[in-house]
């Protein structure tokens, strides 16, 4: 999905900007991410139809992606 394309019908004056975050803050965030745990399996978070929110597997995969693949 490209976030560089403004949806049709948008009425705000959208302008591109650069975001800069200090390397130390990124390092701290990565450490917190690594130390964080995904909650245990429950009936609610095993439902894959998202009727009760995101399922546990989504969080497991997102955490792994952020730790191993995302270009911070």
Question: Which range does the strand content fall in?
Answer: under 5%
Tell me the overall shape. Answer: flat
Output the number of helix runs.
2
Helix content: 25-40%
Largest sheet features: none
The arrangement of helices and strands along the chain is HH
Structural class: mainly alpha
Distance between the termini: 18 Å
Uncertain spans = none
Number of strands: 0
Quote the average pLDDT: 92
Rg of Cα set:
17 Å
Please tag this protein with its features.
72 residues, mainly alpha, 2 helices
How does this model look, in words?
This protein has a domain at 23-68. It is 36% helix and 0% strand. The chain has two helices and no strands. It is flat. The model has no long low-confidence stretch (mean pLDDT 92).
Per-chain topology:
Blueprint: H1 23-35, H2 56-68
Structure summary:
This protein has 2 helices and no strands. With 72 residues, it is an all-alpha fold.
